[in-house]
Amino acid sequence: MSRTTFYRKIKSLSSLSPKELVDITRLKKAARLIAENDHSFAEISRMVGYSSQSLFSRNFQKYFKLSPMEYQNSL
Could you tell me which residues come within 8 angstroms of residue 24 by beta carbon, excluding any fewer than 6 positions away? Predict the structure, then answer.
């Protein structure tokens, strides 16, 4: 399957780009890990595949409208 075909299929099924779909999946897993409260934010960001904790925090806040710390405090 070509890259273009893959992109079109993912876009038609989910109305998201493949990158957005992967990011949302990572962030949902991070939210579950934050709820467990067993790991630090740096560990969680590495566990879900972010090499930079600041990028993780920025994306988390963009998706959930809360910083990871605010999310943890709201539980």
Answer: 16, 63
Q: Are 60 and 68 in contact (CB under 8 A)?
A: yes
Which residue matches tokens 């992109």? 7
Tokens standing for residue 46? 């590495």
Q: Nearest to residue 31, comparing CAs of 53, 60, 51, 74? A: 60
Nearest to 31 by CA among 20, 44, 21: 44
Q: What is the rounded average pLDDT for all residues in the chain?
A: 95
Number of neighbouring beta carbons within 10 Å of residue 16: 13
Per-residue confidence at 40, pLDDT binned at 50, 70, 90? very high
